[in-house]
Amino acid sequence: MSKEKKLNGTVIVTYRCNAQCTMCSRYKAPSRPEEEISIETIRKLPPMYFTNITGGEPFMRDDLEEIVEELSKLSDRIVISTNGFFTDRILKLTERFPKVGIRISIEGLEKTNNEIRGLPDGFNRGYETLKQLRARGMKDVGFGMTIQDRNAADLVPLYNLSDELGMEFATASLHNSFYFVENKNVIHDRPMVAAHFESLINEMLNSGSPKKWFRAYFNHGLINYIYGQKRLLPCDMAFDTFFIDPYGDVMPCNGTKEKKVMGNLNTQTWDELWNSEQADQVRAFVRHCDRNCWMIGSVSPAMHKYIMKPAAWVVAHKLKFWTKKKYSMYELQCCRDYRDGKLTKEMCDQCSTCDMLTDAEDGRTFSASVDR
Ligand code: SF4
Q: Which of 78, 133, 207, 224 could be joined to 212 by an S-S link, Cβ 3.0–4.6 Å?
């Protein structure tokens, strides 16, 4: 790899978590503090144009500020994903690193959020953290929400709340993978959930923000995903994007059923592992991967790389808006087929990321083979 080429990286600094989310069992398979990725290993990472720090809950690590300091030397932009519970730690870190972005996962309005995340007073703690960050002039601050049956009705109200506060609003839907230690996540009432996405898409398209118009496209892709359809854009993970886990294993993504490992940065140099045969085997797997997941970590690089497709979608839908026509989920063949009985719930439930009949992996074992 040329030293000049900057990558998109996600650093999973810990698998410890203080929340107990219904859609993520990672808290049941935490990493031990003494085995978590060290500052020495972090120093071996390549130059990056974007780095997401995630977990587990990243603020469980006592040395997160040191980690951010090292990553600041390597990366043009850093965003930390957190549940926002440790307000004081977050405020302290952002005082020292005001350019760092913070995304706080909030799964709905107060009652729904606290039920889903299993964090006592989690909504108020997260919301308070967001407000305090805003009050201190932090610009790169926002919500992240994972949409499922029980919180779909809160989608647009939460978007409006984030809009009022001038914050970013990131969405996801349920996925199963080794990372979440989950195989039972599934959307049950797809038309209901899709209808809430449709409302969100129309709100975003109706805004004056080009960034939100492209977010609308991402949410259009989420409707397509929950019906188990082929990804709207190719997946190029492991080519110019990587994940690294608390054990130093470098992976293409967090969406696979079993952990796929390109190499280990505790024992190898970056160039050794990135140019290894094992890394090429993982890239071959990615080329044939049929999981069709649609998470921002893999879709954002694809949207930049294949910009013409989302751009054409945005232009077509902005033109529609000027003629007073709105976006409809029935633009997607899968939604029409479901409505017309040609695609059934059972068929969608067989979609590739539902792994309903398999054991959940916890990411301590791994495979570099091309099997899913
Ligand atoms: S489609 Fe496959 S390779 Fe791409 S992010 Fe999903 S699981 Fe990973």
A: 207
